[in-house]
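Mods, move this if it's the wrong board.
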Amino acid sequence: MKFQTVFIIGLTILFASPSPACGPSNGQPMSNSSGSSAQSNSGQPMTPRRQWIRKRLRHLKNKRGEEERMQRGLDGVDLSQGHYPGRSSAYTRQRMIDRYEFLALKAERGRATASEMAEMKLLQNTLLSR
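Not the wrong board. Structure tokens:
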């Protein structure tokens, strides 16, 4: 009975531990196997947050490219069948949210241009007004 209780408590602790929902946010640099901290191109230490941002930016860029290629193919099929290719409002809104997230992360890294900052503000106003 005691072993079963300890086993259940162990599993509960193992699976109930909090996990980072939006990526790691502590400011501690990660160490690689040699013990030195990883460096970014700008010479700043590569914190877990910065690594997560780089991966997320890459993911959003790839997702956008895949969706555009897929949508072009679907538009061709719709046109060949005589239908006007239209986008649903949910699809359009999700694309706007993804673009806003991409621009916000890029701005957090300090790599956003003035035109991208203006686009981000416009997207923010558009998304909040809906």
